C-alpha cells in the first residue's frame, strides 16, 4: 500500500497483517479522494477508526493542515506511528490511543473532513455522525466519508446530514454525507 497523490505520493505505507484493520486499498482511496477533492487548501481531518492511518495521511498529503487519528489497537498504533514518521511532518498528526467512544468525549473541533470506517459499520456510523454533530466538533461544510462493506445500507439522512454520493468498489462501499443546508 502506498500514498496515492500529493506531497507524500508514492511513499509506502505499512499495514497490519490479517483482517483486524482492513486497510483501504490504493484504488479505493484514490477513488474516494476523487469523489471529495481531490486536493485541499487546509482544514482539519478526523479519522475515528484509523487502522494504518492511510486515509488521514493521504488527506494531509493532498493539502489538509492537520489530522487527529483514533485507534485502540496497540499493534495498529505502532503501524500508524511508523507511517506518520514516514511523512517527516509529525507536527501535523495527533494519535489518540483509545477507542472511538472515549475519543469522542475528548475531541475539540472543528473538523472539515471525517473518515468513518468502523468494524461494525451498520450499528456505528449513524451514532458516530450524531455524536460528532451533537458535540459541535464539525465545521459547517464538513465532508463525512464512510467506508463500509458493500452489503451495509446506511440511511439517506442522519440528522441534518444527507448522502451526496455513494459508490461501490469491489466489496467496499463509499458513502459521503454533507449537511443538507450547505448551499
From TrEMBL:
Its EC number is 2.1.1.171. It is an enzyme of class 2 (transferase). GO terms for molecular function: 16S rRNA (guanine(966)-N(2))-methyltransferase activity. InterPro entries: DNA_methylase_N6_adenine_CS, RNA_MeTrfase_RsmD, SAM-dependent_MTases_sf. Keywords: Methyltransferase, Transferase. It comes from the Bacteria. PANTHER family: METHYLTRANSFERASE. This is 16S rRNA (Guanine(966)-N(2))-methyltransferase RsmD. It comes from Pseudolactococcus carnosus.
